[in-house]
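Q: Structure for this?
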Amino acid sequence: MEQRLFVITGATGTGKTTVSRYLTRQYQIPRVITHTTRPPRANEIDGVDYYFETNASFFKKHYIEYVKYADYYYGSSYEALQAAWTMCHFASIVLDTKGAITYVQTLGGLVIPLFLTVKHAAALTTRLVKRGDQRQMIQQRLSSREYKRDLQLPAALSGKAQIVVNDKWSQTQQQVDQIIRQTM
Ligand SMILES: Nc1nc2c(ncn2[C@@H]2O[C@H](COP(=O)(O)OP(=O)(O)O)[C@@H](O)[C@H]2O)c(=O)[nH]1
Ligand SMILES: Nc1ncnc2c1ncn2[C@@H]1O[C@H](COP(=O)(O)OP(=O)(O)O)[C@@H](O)[C@H]1O
């Protein structure tokens, strides 16, 4: 069986991590762990949620791509992708839209892009508060150029990414199950 990578993208709070966790829980599909200079949130664990880096350690790694998002660096490595593919023919990765475009261009048909969105962007603020994000981090995130950019499906992913409107989790779950059935 050929390897495949679910690239899960969309704005902050749309549910990218939730979908990726569902793929692991329900289908044993591992997530590629990426690197970031963002400080960990209260419940995040180094090596599980991210590899948390300093500005100095971040630039010692070898990346397929890296981006700056709301003033922090994020990057993904071939080593982490290979580690996930060693466990399973399928893997997922959670990326901003710039990274998702790079993956589609670099890995072509191995990538299955999913673009997450919600009907009303105002719901995202509520979700971030509920998630326990610090108020100042929410402000910084929501006012970033990257957040605003990622609310829209980029032209480069149009016709390639499957769009998942994650308003009601039960419906999202059904759609994800259908995507998995088509793929496996
Ligand atoms: N391009 C790229 N984006 C990443 C990488 N790791 C995480 N991201 C994205 O960076 C953005 C910010 O992530 P994070 O701070 O965890 O915020 P969240 O989206 O609210 O969970 C999100 O869009 C992530 O999908 C990476 O290695 N490369
Ligand atoms: N359909 C949904 N309805 C309500 N809350 C949701 C839904 N999907 C995810 N959430 C919650 O919204 C918050 C943001 O989701 P998360 O997966 O962390 O988003 P992202 O990774 O895109 O930033 C989390 O607290 C998550 O539990």
